Amino acid sequence: ALGILAASGQIPPDATAAHEYHGELALSGQLRPVSGILPCALAATDARRDIITAPENHHEAALVAADNTHSAGSLAEIAAILHGQRDWPAPPAAALRPPRQYPDYADVIGQHQAKRALPVAAAGGHHVLMSGPPGTGKSMLAQRFPGILPAMNDAEAIESAAIRSLAGGGFNPADWRQRPYRAPHHSSSATALVGGGSIPKPGEISLAHHGVLFLDELPEFDRKTLEALREPLESGEIHISRAAMHVTFPADFQLVAAMNPCPCGYYGHPVKPCTCTPDSIARYRSKISGPLLDRMDLIMEVPALSSADLLQAQAGESSAAVLERVVAARERQYRRQGKLNVALSPTDLDQQAQISDQAKETLGNLVEKLSLSARSFHRILRIARTLADLAADDKVERGHILKAVSFRRSM
Fold it and tell me: Please, which residues bridge with residue 215 across strands?
C-alpha cells in the first residue's frame, strides 16, 4: 500500500526507505497491532530507520527504540504526516497491565531444607526437583522462586521480551526486567513445551528464557515431551526443523519441577497409608528417565508437616532478605569467572572454582560409594562452589561437598 502511495506521489518517494511500517492494514485504512513488534523495533534501530506502528504497539516498540518510534491510527494519517501537513501525534496513553507481583518467601511454613536449597539454586542457576506428598508446599516454593532471582540486565530483558512479543499476545512493558515464570499444565504437548508448528513459534521453554519453568506433577507429562527437555537443559537453546525452514530459539531457563513420591502421593507419609503397589510406584518413577534426572542439580524431599510444625511455625526469611544474599553470591561468581556456576565447564571447575584437595578427595570417595556419573560429579562440584559463594568463602571445602551431596537425594 505504501509503495503504491509513493509511486502515485501521495507520499514522499524516500518515505519507505527512511521508515519501517509494522501493522495490519484493515480495509478501512486503519492500522491494527501485530505481534513480534519488539524484535522489529530492534532491527529498525540497527538499520537506523524510524519505526511506525499501530498505537497499541507503541509502548512495546519504545522499550528499545524510544527515539525513533512513532505511531499512527490509519494510512491516511501517515500520508498526511509524511507530507508535512501534520506532526506525529503524541504517544498514546499507556494502557498497561499491572506488573506481576511474586508472593513472599516468608509465607512458606517449615520445609527448612527446601528453603535452604532454593537460594542455592537461585544463586548458581541450578535446576531443582522437589518430591513430596500433596499439600506440603512444593507449588508454594516454586511460585516464590522468581522473587528471589535478581532482575534481568538490559540484554537479558530485551531477549526475553522479544521472545514473548514474537509468541503473540504482546509483552507487557510493566514487566520489563522481571524474570518470566511459566507453569504449563502436564497435559501440554511437546510442541507447546519446546515450540514448533508449520511456522515455528517459541514454546514454553523459550518463553521462560532467563526465567523459571515450573513443571508440576512431573511424571504426568508425556515421556517424549520430557525427553525433549534434555537438549535445551544442556545447550540453552532448542533447534526446530521443518521442511521449509530451520529455526533456533533461545531456551536458557531454570527448571523447577515437582512430583509426588508415588501415584497416590502418600508413599512414606507418617500418617496416611500408601495404597500403591511396588510395581505401580516403579512405573510411576520410571516416567522420568535417568538422563533427565541426572540433569537435575538439586533433588530434595519436601515431607509432610506434623501438627506441631504447623502450630509452632514462625515467619521465615523474606524474599527481599534471600534476594540480597543471592545477589551477593552472583556478584562473586561474575567477578571470578564472568558467568554463573551452572555454566562452568569441567575445565573451568579445575581452573577457576578453587576446590581444595580435601574436597576433591571427599567427592572422589562419594563417587565410588554412590556410583555417581561424571555428570553428577561435576554438578556436585558446581553446587558446592555456589554454597561457598553464599558463605563468602574463597575455596570449596569438604563441608561444602557434603552439603552439596545432601541436596541430591536419590529417587
Answer: 257
- Residue 219 predicted with pLDDT over 80: yes
Q: Which of 196, 219, 197 is nearest to 206 (CA)?
A: 196
The torsion angles phi and psi of 330, rounded to 5 degrees, stand at -65, -40
All three cell numbers of 132, joined, read: 513430596
Cα–Cα distance for residue pair 7/149, rounded to 1 Å: 53
CA 170 – CA 84 distance, rounded (Å): 32
**pLDDT tens-digit series, residues 318-342:** 999 999 999 999 999 999 999 999 9
Note whether 127 and 254 are within 8 A (CB).
yes
Give the cell for residue 216.
508440576
A 10 A CB-CB count for 184 gives 20
User: 113: left (phi > 0), else alpha (psi -120 to 50), else beta?
Assistant: alpha
Calculate Rg over the CA atoms of the chain. 25
Determine the average pLDDT of the residues in 283-309: 87
* pLDDT (0 to 100) of residue 350: 86
Amino acid at 131: S
Backbone angles phi, psi at 14, to 5 degrees: -90, 5
pTM summary value: 0.84
- What is the C-alpha to C-alpha distance for residues 28 and 6, in angstroms, rounded to an integer? 19
Instruction: Give buried/exposed letters for 378-392 (b at 16+ CB in 10 A, else e).
Output: bbbbbbbbbbbbbee
Cα separations in angstroms, 176 against 102, 252, 319? 14, 18, 19
In angstroms, the CA 77 to CA 87 distance is 10
Computed over every residue of the chain, the mean pLDDT equals 86
Are the beta carbons of 22 and 34 closer than 8 angstroms? yes
pLDDT in tens, 22-72: 888 888 888 888 888 888 888 888 888 888 888 888 888 888 877 788 888
| DSSP codes joined into one string, 351-406 | HHS-B-HHHHHHHHHHHHHHT--HHHHHHHHHHHHHHHHHTT-SSB-HHHHHHHHH
Other C-beta atoms closer than 10 Å to the C-beta of 24 total 10
What span, in angstroms and rounded, lies between the C-alpha atoms of 193 and 208? 10
